[in-house]
Amino acid sequence: MRDPNPQTIYLKDYTVPEYLIHSVALNFTLDDENTLVSSRLTLSRNPASQSRDTSLTLSGENLKLMRINLDDGNDLSKDQYLQTQDSLIINAVPQQQRFVLSIENAINPKANTALEGLYLSNGMLCTQCEAEGFRKITYFLDRPDVMTLFTTTLVGDKDRYPVLLSNGNKIAQGELSDNRHWVTWEDPFNKPCYLFALVAGQLECIADRFTTQSGRDIDLQIFVEKHDIDKCDHAMESLKNAMHWDEQVYGREYDLDLYMIVAVSHFNMGAMENKGLNVFNTKFVLARPDTATDFDYEHIEAVIGHEYFHNWTGNRITCRDWFQLSLKEGFTVFRDQEFTGDRTSKAVKRIEDVNMLRTRQFAEDAGPLAHPIRPDAYIEINNFYTLTVYEKGAEVVRMIRTLVGAEGFRKGSDLYFERHDGQAVTCDDFVSAMEAANDIDLTQFRRWYAQAGTPLLTARQHYDPSAQTLTLTISQSCPPTPGQAVKEPLHIPVTVGLLNKDGSVAPCKLQDGDQACDEVILQLTQSEQAFIFEGLAEQPVVSILRGFSAPVKLVMERSLEESAFLLSYDSDTFNRWEAGQQLAGQIIMGLIADLQNGRGMHVNPIMINAFKQVLEQPWDDLSYFSLLLNLPSETYLAEQMQVVDVEAIHAAREFVTLALAEQLQTQLQALYLNNHRDESGKFDAGAIGRRRIKNTCLSYLSKLENKDIHHLSQQQFNTAKNMTDQMAALTVIVNNPHPAKQQCLDSFYRQWQAEALVIDKWFTLQASNSMPDTFATVQALMQHPAFDLKNPNRVRSLIGAFSQSNPLHFHASNGQGYQFLTDQIIALNTLNPQIASRMVGALTAWRRYDEGRQALMKAQLERIITTEAISKDVYEVASKSLIYKAD
Ligand code: B3K
Ligand code: ZN
């Protein structure tokens, strides 16, 4: 039932907890439909609390309360407590000494389709407690600053639940009558309840071992459903790599004797860092060369790393309150980005991250749900696990590293761990540790935590030949965002390098600065600032915002020739790629204008020549090479337009793709053939790079629509020995008028119907297809026997892919895409509010479209908002989307 006035929670209202929990002993008698939970809490009044209230309020939702007992006396009678929809209030508890509160309640995991709390996934019982899921298991002080010691006993039928897992170390086990058994787990580390986990079911396990730098042996175990046991090796290697990396780079060692990972098929997000017992979406564990692509392999290593790194940045040091979420998420994303960069290619990883940030986080920052990386208000915290908190949060940590340098950053993180181990702290505590370790003042920098919106930098240059100086004037501004009309200037590191006309490095010597360097980090702190470079005998070409040194939009006028020059010569790998994006972006935007004004389209030869040069150079890093050949995505291009014109964007981008394919066919074909191997799918940089460049070429060539190319993709599809190649071939077959399209889709389905994650790809591919019959296909796929609205991976692969990765068809001018999505959101609202709310995302940017589409999208948002029994999750996103107007 919808709360008619969902309550907003404010950061400014934070107060310390009134009670502390010293320890909790939990006992679960497991049953799919009726699990009995008994909890024994040792509590005391928190001396730091100012409150005079002598009652105790615990959170709890959907719980069948059976019994409450204080200090092992008589059970409490009804007049001694009050039960509300979301809490249990014990009227009076001891104020002077510790007391023991025992509670018994029952829950129904099978009925839990929201997948928060204890739920059932393919016959396996598992939990998800972050952010506020523990209250769906039992009554508790469900807030991250209440940390306690957990002991957990699981009791269940031996056949039904042969494996019984929880956090920490297994300390006892035994047999019971009626074919039951029990296991007790003890976690020696204090933790908030959001890190609690239990898993019970018929699971298989692979085991390995890791010896820490101090010589401790850690047991590593990965649990999966039986048929997946042959797909765990990569995850295990990834875990060992992550453990090693954290020791090398941060000096952090694992603390328990056992590290367990469980893969489950029904999961609302990617994975969860529960202490010693991570629960993962199968998507980020299972991989075999024939079932998983190179991207899947990379993402698995990244997510395994991410959750592992949380052990220090999240678990040992956690968040004081949920407004501080970026404290653990921003820092941990930064850590996993660096890990992946070290394991694969730094250049490629940086480009991929920035690409995602600029297409998706920038859109969030410009939309009705824009919020700072440390939000100051929320209705439903699950709505704030956003790209802003995660990805922009990581950029903010990265900027601190840029400002203090790699060594200074390590000193700062050492101090942070030393100061706060075992505590629940704030973003400010993190910044303070960085300041103290480096003796710098980050007062102004802290605005990044409080201010929403993407800053806009405008750079102008002036060269004075007589003084041999170049003046770079940079101004900053930030658009208004919900609740924040006025913005203060930020402290922004802007990395700059200079190039001579022959492409060589020009010295960077700032007036009044140190000696000349290859590049400098400008400290932009004012609304407008001029930086003077001296000793420049000729006018250099400026390479600005190298490595994307700050999460900002940059405007600097550049000719197409200058972009082409930087694409050839910039020594900064990020800016070199960026130059190609700007060149292509400018040309495509010009063609969009041509289309809109009824002019014919012609691709400027400067672009063809620039791409030709790239194609004809030798490259070591083939993945980077293939990124240089990628055109900006339709979503990125849409971000650049005042009023998004999905059809023109698609047509103009396709036109450029075809022109490049036609004019560079010889080079593309040669490159394809040179890199095509009959490989089974080794996960190493060389093989990955070969596949990536080859498949980029195939994707261009497939636009030529000739028989030989059709044959080439069909051939690759038929003979592929790895999923990367098979999927790449199927993608071009499905996205072009290939005669064997349906036949290939059918054979792919038959081949892979037993592999859920591969079938997800099959759904996604069809849902994100730009061919004319896509909408009908999507509707038909909703009725497919393999589709299941209760499985988040399936929902994301069909409904999510259609609404978020298929702008052309989702935004069909008759509104059918919007209506379809809304129907699904309404259905999902009752089943799984978190997933439903994520799906609303595709409608939130309605103000960016033409009037016709605006009206259609708005009408659907209104339909959502008037849904009976709307969840807090969906209500918050839909209502904020309707209310806010940027100008
Ligand atoms: N901390 C979890 C996310 C929990 C999301 C709750 N809605 C995964 C992660 O960021 O590592
Ligand atoms: Zn995380």
From TrEMBL:
<keyword id="KW-0645">Protease</keyword>
<feature type="domain" description="Peptidase M1 alanyl aminopeptidase C-terminal">
    <location>
        <begin position="561"/>
        <end position="882"/>
    </location>
</feature>
<feature type="domain" description="Peptidase M1 alanyl aminopeptidase Ig-like fold">
    <location>
        <begin position="453"/>
        <end position="555"/>
    </location>
</feature>
<dbReference type="InterPro" id="IPR014782">
    <property type="entry name" value="Peptidase_M1_dom"/>
</dbReference>
<dbReference type="InterPro" id="IPR045357">
    <property type="entry name" value="Aminopeptidase_N-like_N"/>
</dbReference>
<dbReference type="InterPro" id="IPR042097">
    <property type="entry name" value="Aminopeptidase_N-like_N_sf"/>
</dbReference>
<keyword id="KW-0031">Aminopeptidase</keyword>
<dbReference type="GO" id="GO:0016285">
    <property type="term" value="F:alanyl aminopeptidase activity"/>
</dbReference>
<dbReference type="InterPro" id="IPR012779">
    <property type="entry name" value="Peptidase_M1_pepN"/>
</dbReference>
<dbReference type="GO" id="GO:0008237">
    <property type="term" value="F:metallopeptidase activity"/>
</dbReference>
<dbReference type="Pfam" id="PF17900">
    <property type="entry name" value="Peptidase_M1_N"/>
</dbReference>
<dbReference type="InterPro" id="IPR035414">
    <property type="entry name" value="Peptidase_M1_pepN_Ig-like"/>
</dbReference>
<dbReference type="InterPro" id="IPR038438">
    <property type="entry name" value="PepN_Ig-like_sf"/>
</dbReference>
<keyword id="KW-0482">Metalloprotease</keyword>
<dbReference type="GO" id="GO:0008270">
    <property type="term" value="F:zinc ion binding"/>
</dbReference>
<feature type="domain" description="Aminopeptidase N-like N-terminal">
    <location>
        <begin position="26"/>
        <end position="195"/>
    </location>
</feature>
<dbReference type="InterPro" id="IPR001930">
    <property type="entry name" value="Peptidase_M1"/>
</dbReference>
<comment type="similarity">
    <text>Belongs to the peptidase M1 family.</text>
</comment>
<dbReference type="InterPro" id="IPR037144">
    <property type="entry name" value="Peptidase_M1_pepN_C_sf"/>
</dbReference>
<feature type="domain" description="Peptidase M1 membrane alanine aminopeptidase">
    <location>
        <begin position="235"/>
        <end position="448"/>
    </location>
</feature>
<protein>
    <recommendedName>
        <fullName>Aminopeptidase N</fullName>
        <ecNumber>3.4.11.2</ecNumber>
    </recommendedName>
</protein>
<keyword id="KW-0862">Zinc</keyword>
<keyword id="KW-0479">Metal-binding</keyword>
<dbReference type="InterPro" id="IPR024601">
    <property type="entry name" value="Peptidase_M1_pepN_C"/>
</dbReference>
<comment type="function">
    <text>Aminopeptidase N is involved in the degradation of intracellular peptides generated by protein breakdown during normal growth as well as in response to nutrient starvation.</text>
</comment>
<dbReference type="InterPro" id="IPR027268">
    <property type="entry name" value="Peptidase_M4/M1_CTD_sf"/>
</dbReference>
<keyword id="KW-0378">Hydrolase</keyword>
<dbReference type="Pfam" id="PF11940">
    <property type="entry name" value="DUF3458"/>
</dbReference>
<dbReference type="Pfam" id="PF17432">
    <property type="entry name" value="DUF3458_C"/>
</dbReference>
<dbReference type="GO" id="GO:0006508">
    <property type="term" value="P:proteolysis"/>
</dbReference>
<dbReference type="Pfam" id="PF01433">
    <property type="entry name" value="Peptidase_M1"/>
</dbReference>
